[in-house]
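Let us work through a complete example step by step.
Step 1: write down the sequence.
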Amino acid sequence: MFKSNVGSLDRIARIILGLVLIGAFFMFPDSPWRWALLIGIVPLATAMMGSCPIYSVLGIKTNKE
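Step 2: predict the structure and record it as tokens.
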């Protein structure tokens, strides 16, 4: 579907960032900005797909193919 443009180190960073943001969503149940933390789904999704749409637009490629 999409060409892979996310390298392994980039994937690991995205997974960690996504998990931290989603974990914070559950750690702060009464916070008014709690729902903004669901943005963590985006780095998790791009890490799992191996492709980042913003990288495609900017012509960035962190994998070694």
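Step 3: interpret the result. Helices lie at 8-27, 41-49, 53-58.
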